[in-house]
Every structure is written in C-alpha cells, then in structure tokens.
Amino acid sequence: MKKARIIIAAVILVSLSLGTTACTDFVDPSAGTPAAPSVSDQQLQVPESPPPYTPMPLMQGYSLYENSAHRLSVQYPSEWLVNDNFNDETLVAFMDFSDFAKFQYINIVVLDAEGIIPGNLMFTPLDEFTAGIEQELVGHFDGFESISAAEGVFYGSNYFLCFKYKIFIDEDELALYGALTVNNEKFYRIEFSTEYENLADSIETYNNMLSSLFFSLE
Hints:
3 helices, alpha+beta
C-alpha cells in the first residue's frame, strides 16, 4: 500500500505541473527592456556568471538519456527504470524499484514557455514562485511543510528555481523537491520524490541528475 500511495502521489505531482501558478510572471522580451522588479536580496539571487556550457563527463554507475526533439541529455543511475511514455506532459520518468521501502522517482515535465528566455528566471521574485507552488499543493495532500526557502541556483550549465517540501499522505511522509529551468522556449520542471526518511541517502542522486542536465545548441 505504501508504494501504491507514492505512485499516486507521483501522478498528482505531474498534474500539479500543468498549472501556470508556479511559473509566476516572467519578463516578456518582446516588450522591450523593462526595469528589474524591486525585490529584496532574500527574494532574488542573481549569480555573477554561469559555468562553462559543456556536458558533464559520464559519472560512474550512471547511463545517459538523450532526447533529440528537446535537444537534451541527462544522466541517471543505470539500475533505474526509464519510462518515456508516462503521460503526454512528462517527457521522461526515472524510477528506482530496487528497494520498495525506499521508492524514489525523478520526472522531467515539459510546459510551454513561448517567448521566455533563460535569463528571465533570474528576475523572478522567489516569494511569488513559492506562493505559486504552495497554491498547487493545497488540497492535493493531507498536508505539507517547507523544508527550506526557495532559491535560484546554477546546476551545471542551467539556472534553476528550486523548492523543497515535505508532503503528507496518510501516515507517509514524502520529500518533494523540484527545479524549474527554461530552454528552447520550454519550461522543464524536474521533480524528485522519495520517503522523507530516505532523503539523506537519495539527495545525491537528484543533485547529480540536475547537474548533468544538458541542452545542446544544435
């Protein structure tokens, strides 16, 4: 039953990603060059410069997933199941069935971002981003609480808006992490979930996959 509830949660989380509230109000480049919004240092973190735009060498114990239509690649643990027919909105789902007591998955969900460029994310107030995420969570779970504040960070060559929550389903406590980036006029939302008690053992995998996500220029 525990695994079934987690799988149901995964389906719900994918449906949450279809909403627009978590995407907040982005700057439209066609409207000229507007002034940056007035937000505090706690709301906005703008890095000085991105890392070099090069793919990561293949990590030991990982395999490479590639999608030519989206010009992306990402590394994932070789023993995980890959499902690229999960549903219409999920580009690919990576699932670990090696230990049902520590069931975990990572989804890449794609949404339209026509006219939006990657740099727009750096001017997104983090409090608005957090409010959008929490609005989506309300009513879908027995409860939720923030693990830490939202942040804007680079993983590898990509800038992400990231959130971290604990969600409750019956007696189960699950960790829900998410990271939103933009490329090729698409939003890519990478969602990770596992049993909360398993988080410390699993977070390295999530960080590795985010760091390895690479968008080809050709």
